[in-house]
Each structure stands twice: as structure tokens, then as C-alpha cells.
Specification:
Layout lengths: L1 E5 L2 E5 L8 E6 L23 H15 L6 E2 L9 E3 L13 E4 L5 E6 L3 E7 L4 E7 L1 H6 L1 H13 L7 E4 L9 E2 L1 H10 L7 E4 L2 E4 L1 H11 L4 E4 L24 E7 L3
Parallel strand pairs: 4-7, 5-6, 10-14
Antiparallel strand pairs: 1-2, 2-3, 3-15, 6-9, 7-15, 8-9, 8-10, 11-13, 12-13
Length: 259
């Protein structure tokens, strides 16, 4: 990924994604107005931050990315695997799901994160974008595969044409998990033994590798992994673990065309 900064707002983009009319960004935590522990570009009202702060933070982030607020489609994220296809109008932000897809040039897809995996998708042939939120539950339940399959079923995409980016998330060095999560990961990825590592009697889950494997199993060939750990880079990104459970949420977006 490469780092950009506009108007004091820092965000990252995938180097494997094309320039031109595709707009995408994974925002850091700097450049907003929220006080600690949401300092400062918190994008979520579910954290305890004020609505006024979140609105101003989103305004700043969208301005940095060159996106109009009226173009943004989002969701009420619930750690599931549902995928919503967005038509010309962004729709209801209280719809409960964890992924969005669209072929509308006027729509920008937007979700929020703090250790869970941002998955951004673009089919340059069918001109389709997608974004997904995958924590451990979504990862083992097939979130990555579901969003690819939805793009194929809804818009006629060919999985091999899709470009995928796995954004900043908690990394394998910091994501210690218990037996329940480890067992679920082994069951979901029986041929990916490297997604679980045992060190000093503790088990760690590699969400980056797991989601990359899931995308490959769905037929995606181009996968860029940021390899940026939110917990280790807590000064740059919000992290539920890095902030001891009280944290903001950073945003990620993807869209195409004129916003």
C-alpha cells in the first residue's frame, strides 16, 4: 500500500489497483476532531463518540478522497456474511450485513474497522466494486468467498478478473485466540495449517493469510495484502486490542466514476 495525505487526513491505497476513475482509500486515525480514546478520525457512532464529531470526521475523510456524502452507501455491521447489492441510490444505512457490492458509478461503498479485515474488490472488466468486513467470525464463515460469489452472480463477474486488496488488520503476531476460535479456523481452513501459530503455549490466528486463501479458493488471482498490523501500528490505525477495548473505527471506501 502507499500512503497519501490531504488536508491533514492520512489514507492508504493499494498499489495494484488502477488509477483513473477508481477511488479507494483506507483511512488512518489522524486528522479528525474526536477526543481520546477516539482520537481523532473516528468514523463510527457505536463507539461512544458524539454524532457531531463523527459527522465532521466523515466529512473530512470524504473530502480528502474527493467523494460526496450523498454518494456513500454503508451498513450496520454485524460480524456476519451477508452481502448487499447497491443500486443507484445508496439505500438504508441500518441494513444489517457486512459487505456491499455495486456496478453503479455514482455510488461509493464505505465500511468501518478496528482490527477486523477490510477487503476491497474491483472488477475492471465488468466495472464492479465491492467491500467486506471480516473479523474471525466472518473469516471462518466465508465472508471473502461470499462477496466474490455475489459479484459473479449479480453482475456476471469472472473471479479471475477481480482485483482484491486486504487492508490493515490485526496481524498474526498480536492476534492471540482461544480454543474455540482456533478450532473454528482449523475446520474452515483444513489445508491452511500456517494460519495458526503456537508460540510459548499461546495460539495466534493469521487473518491476513486466511482471507487471502479464501479469496484464492473463490477464484481470485490478484490479491494485495497490506501486511499492516493495526495493533502494532496503533498510532496510525484504531485497534480494539491495541486500545484495550475502547477505540474508534477507521473507515475504508471504494467507488468509481464521478462522485
Amino acid at each position: 500500500m502507499q500512503l497519501c495525505e490531504r488536508g491533514g487526513v492520512r489514507f492508504f491505497t493499494f498499489t495494484s489497483f488502477p488509477n483513473g476513475d477508481l477511488t479507494h482509500a483506507v483511512f488512518g486515525r489522524a486528522g479528525g476532531v474526536s477526543p481520546a480514546p477516539f482520537d481523532s478520525l473516528n468514523m463510527s457512532i457505536s463507539t461512544g463518540d458524539s454524532l457531531e464529531n463523527v459527522r465532521e470526521n466523515r466529512r473530512r475523510a470524504l473530502a480528502a478522497a474527493g467523494v460526496k456524502a450523498a454518494a456513500v452507501a454503508t451498513l450496520w455491521q454485524v460480524h456476519g456474511t451477508e452481502v448487499v447489492a447497491v443500486a443507484a441510490q445508496p439505500g438504508d444505512p441500518l441494513t444489517q450485513a457486512d459487505a456491499l457490492i455495486t456496478n453503479e458509478r455514482s455510488v461509493t461503498l464505505f465500511l468501518r474497522f478496528a482490527d477486523c479485515v477490510p477487503i476491497l474488490l474491483f472488477d475492471p472488466v465488468r466495472r464492479v466494486t465491492g467491500i467486506a468486513h471480516a473479523g474471525w467470525r466472518g473469516t471462518v464463515a466465508g465472508m471473502a468467498q461470499n462477496v466474490v460469489r455475489a459479484m459473479v452472480a449479480k453482475y456476471g463477474c469472472i473471479a479471475a478478473d477481480i482485483l482484491a486488496g486486504i487492508g490493515p488488520a490485526v496481524g498474526p503476531a498480536r492476534y492471540e485466540v482461544g480454543a474455540e476460535v482456533a478450532d473454528a479456523a482449523r475446520a474452515a481452513f483444513p489445508h491452511e495449517s500456517d494460519i495458526l501459530q503456537v508460540r510459548a503455549g499461546k495460539t495466534y490466528l493469521d487473518l491476513w493469510t486466511a482471507n487471502a486463501a479464501a479469496l484464492r479458493s473463490a477464484g481470485v488471482r490478484s490479491i494485495e495484502v497490506a501486511q499492516l498490523c493495526t495493533a502494532e501500528n496503533n498510532n496510525e490505525f484504531f485497534s480494539h486490542r491495541g486500545d484495550n477495548g475502547q477505540s474508534g473505527r477507521f473507515g475504508a471506501l471504494i467507488g468509481m466514476g464521478v462522485n
